[in-house]
Write a structure and sequence with these properties.
Number of helices: 3
Number of domains: 2
Order of helices and strands: EHHEEEEEEH
Largest sheet: 4 strands, antiparallel
Strand order of the largest sheet: 1-2-3-4
Strand content: 15-25%
Shape: elongated
CATH architecture of the largest domain: Roll
Helix content: 40-55%
Length: 193
């Protein structure tokens, strides 16, 4: 896999549990959607407060009660929707629980390769159960640091690598020794600078 002539710094074979994926997705939502949700819900809160004040000043203006209710509902949905999305994602990821991956960190890039599928095959189309994907058919994901904006977060049990606001990768710490953890941690802390 050293096709880019870069030195291998660390390599980890791992699988991902639902709990680890949940931690990573919460972090992804926190990093990329929290500020937007705070801003949006603040706008709806202001609309609700302004409408409530107006309706208290002019009780005969009953349409404002509807605006208050709608603003509160939309404000609540801004916080409920990410929870629903996360639960649906975790349900969908149950199908790939048990898949094994290989994370390889190089000076210039990292790669993630699927090395084993949970059931030795995946059916991409439920209608066409005959067509199966083998591990060799799945190309590795190569992320060059010179071409992507990469962010890194360390949580208690996982490392989470973000590619801008496109996607994230979860690397569980339970699958690596302390030396590899330190190599990955120090590499990504230095790359941020």
């Amino acid at each position: 896999m050293d096709e880019l002539n870069s030195e291998l710094l660390a390599q980890v074979e791992y699988d991902i549990t639902s709990e680890e994926e949940n931690i990573s997705f919460k972090e992804y939502q926190k990093v990329y959607t929290l500020k937007k949700r705070i801003f949006q819900s603040s706008l709806f809160l202001l609309i609700a407060i302004f409408s409530l004040i107006r309706v208290l000043m002019q009780p005969d203006y009953s349409m404002l009660w509807g605006i208050v209710v709608i603003a509160v509902i939309f404000g609540a949905l801004i916080w409920i929707n990410p929870i629903i999305v996360r639960k649906n994602l975790l349900k969908a990821l149950k199908n790939i629980e048990g898949d094994r991956y290989q994370f390889s960190l190089y000076n210039e890039y990292f790669s993630i390769k699927t090395i084993q599928l949970a059931n030795n095959s995946v059916t991409p189309d439920i209608e066409n159960q005959e067509e199966k994907i083998e591990v060799d058919d799945i190309p590795p994901k190569i992320v060059k640091f010179s071409e992507e904006e990469v962010n890194f977060v360390e949580k208690e049990n996982v490392f989470v690598i973000f590619l801008k606001n496109q996607t994230y990768y979860t690397i569980p710490k339970r699958c690596m020794d302390m030396q590899i953890q330190e190599t990955i941690r120090s590499f990504f802390k230095n790359i941020k600078k």
